[in-house]
Structure formats: structure tokens, C-alpha cells
Sequence to fold (155 residues):
Amino acid sequence: MKRIPLIGFAILTVLTAACQDSIPFRYDGKEPDSMSTRKYPHAFFVVHGQIIDSLAQEPISGMPVNLRLEDTVFTDSTGYFRTQTIAFPISQEFRLVFNTLGEHHNPLYNSETLYVHFMLPTFKLSQEEILEHGPRFFGSAYMTVNKTLIPLVDE
Fold:
């Protein structure tokens, strides 16, 4: 009899670990997906910051940044970026990749990966956002990540 709670705990732990960095709001396409029709609590997790060259101490423009599996964003002329993802409104961990490999990779810098943790996030929410995104929208949690990249030196 003591094995049943232990087995249940083990199954729950495995399921929780397996879903840690997956996007749980995938739809089958039979009904339209929009922020106002989501059936699950959801929130925006926003990461913004600046990327600087460690040698020149100047901002790096056009650097690709990728949060989770979302679309890649690029730094502006002052090195600033802003990227976001949608997830369940609880503590979350996401992978943030600077200088993603692929078409827009900057060969002057190595690709770097960070894991950002939103621990017990506080969500900012306005009445207008509830009207726009629906009653199950919890708002937005923000994090600032400033990154200094070391350029590759060709000797």
C-alpha cells in the first residue's frame, strides 16, 4: 500500500521535469488561437537588456537573441533587445541564446547560452490588458539581462 503514493510521486516528478522548457500552449488548429481565447492561465515573460563588446566597451547592433523557441530578435543600434514568450504564470526557467547559430550568426563572437529563472514572478497587469488578452491573462513579468560578449581575435 505504501508503494502507490511513491509511484504517484515519481510519475508526477517525471512529468514536471519533462515539461520544464516546452511550450504548453500548442493547439491542434481546429479552433483559432488568439490571446483572448486561451483556455489556460497564461502570462508574458519578457527579457530585455543590452549587449556590449568587452574590448571596445561599445554596444553591439544586429546581434541575434533567442528566448526559448520563439522568433529571433536583434539588438538595435544601441545594443538593446527585448524578447518575450508566453507560459503558465508560475516560476519558470527559459533558455536565452545570444548570437544564435544560423543565417544571422555574427562570426566575430561565440554563441552563448544563459538560463534565466523567473522565481516567484510578480506580474504587471492593467485593465486594458485584461480586455485585450482575456480573463485568464495574468500580465507580464520582466527581467533585465545585460551581456558582455568577448570578440574572437584572429591572430
Residues 99 and 105 are 6 Å apart (CA to CA). The domain at 27-149 is CATH 2.60.40.10 (Immunoglobulin-like). Residues 3-18 form the longest helix (16 residues).
